[in-house]
Write a structure and sequence with these properties.
Jelly Rolls, five-stranded antiparallel sheet, 2 domains, elongated, alpha+beta, 335 residues, Arc Repressor Mutant, subunit A
């Protein structure tokens, strides 16, 4: 397969003759690959590339003292899978507008449709291991793409020769995926007919595995969403019913789940903690009472505070202003 993914390492690194000139060691060896070695100061990279008829494979080891932007030239439309096998940060892909097209975190991967153009990859500070392969979108034909809903926009873009790049949702790179990649790299053979069948079979396995990973994460996300939304709605009712007496422990009984599961699902789905939500809901309920014309004392006791002092301290901590200042702003129409 003709090479179409040209990572311009020479724009930052200097080429060196051999691995012996580097401190960096390859994390895996791609058999019969063409290897190149790069160094600038303490920054080093090892690029291994293998040209197969059914797909082009590459593996990059890199260590950087600071994040670096590396130019990338694409000269033919293909479908790509880009795996960040390990890293100390996320990888970012940019187009010519200098806007990020996508990011890929450690132990995550994405499919990409990249039409011919100039791009750039921002590699994170620290040590990174990246594996990629690209192939013709003609692998999807005769309706065999139907199970791959998350890839359909990319397949359509490939078939239509679209001018705009496309990115899939990301998915997990776990031990099974890493082992598949290790086997591919270890078993590559140069100029052997059965090698192409091997590459094709492994490509199909990686595509099928990515579908499995996407399905697992979507199922897990739906599970987290159900728990998180139910927890949020119940906590809002607790606050309405009990004010500051509302306890997060009640969720355990009502949802019939342990507290750690509820907290993790809520954090994964909403990105904040249940304790933060409780304070947010309580503050909003307090503001609701004050907007309705209740005094600070009436609001404090309506929310089950034992004293106006406790309520005032809570309000100032959460709202950043005192109750009296909030009421003053209400009267002036500033809130």
């Amino acid at each position: 397969m003709k090479k179409s993914f040209h990572l311009q390492l020479h724009e930052y690194f200097n080429s060196v003759e051999s691995l012996g000139e580097l401190q960096l060691e390859p994390t895996l060896l791609m058999q019969h690959a063409e290897a190149s070695y790069w160094k600038t100061g303490k920054d080093e990279a090892i690029l291994q590339e293998f040209d197969g008829q059914r797909g082009f494979l590459y593996h990059l080891d890199v260590t950087l003292e600071a994040a670096r932007m590396i130019p990338l030239e694409i000269d033919r439309s293909d479908l790509h899978i880009l795996y960040v096998l390990s890293s100390d940060g996320s990888l970012f892909l940019y187009d010519t507008t200098a806007e990020p097209l996508t990011d890929i975190a450690c132990e995550r991967a994405r499919y990409l449709y990249l039409p011919p153009d100039d791009y750039a990859i921002e590699l994170p500070k620290g040590r990174s291991q990246i594996f990629g392969l690209y192939f013709s979108g003609r692998i999807f034909r005769h309706g065999n793409e139907r199970p791959y809903d998350f890839l359909k926009p990319l397949i359509a873009a490939y078939r239509d020769k679209a001018a705009e790049p496309q990115c899939s949702i990301d998915f997990s790179v776990g031990p099974q995926t890493k082992l598949q990649i290790e086997i591919i790299c270890r078993e590559l053979r140069a100029k052997q007919l059965n090698n192409e069948a091997f590459i094709y079979a492994k490509l199909i396995q990686l595509i099928e595995l990515s579908l499995e990973k996407v399905g697992q994460e979507q199922t897990k996300e739906q599970h987290d969403k159900r728990i998180a939304v139910n927890a949020r709605n119940l906590l809002a009712l607790y606050i309405e019913d009990e004010g500051q007496s509302a306890s997060l422990k009640r969720l355990k009984k009502d949802l019939k789940l342990d507290s750690d599961t509820i907290s993790r699902s809520y954090k994964r789905y909403f990105g904040t903690t249940l304790s933060d939500l409780r304070e947010e809901l309580l503050l909003e309920k307090a503001k609701e009472y004050l907007r309705a014309g209740h005094t600070a004392t009436e609001t404090a006791y309506a929310l089950n505070y034992s004293s106006i002092y406790s309520f005032s301290r809570f309000f100032k901590t959460q709202a950043g202003i005192s109750v009296s200042e909030y009421v003053r702003r209400l009267r002036k129409g500033e809130e």
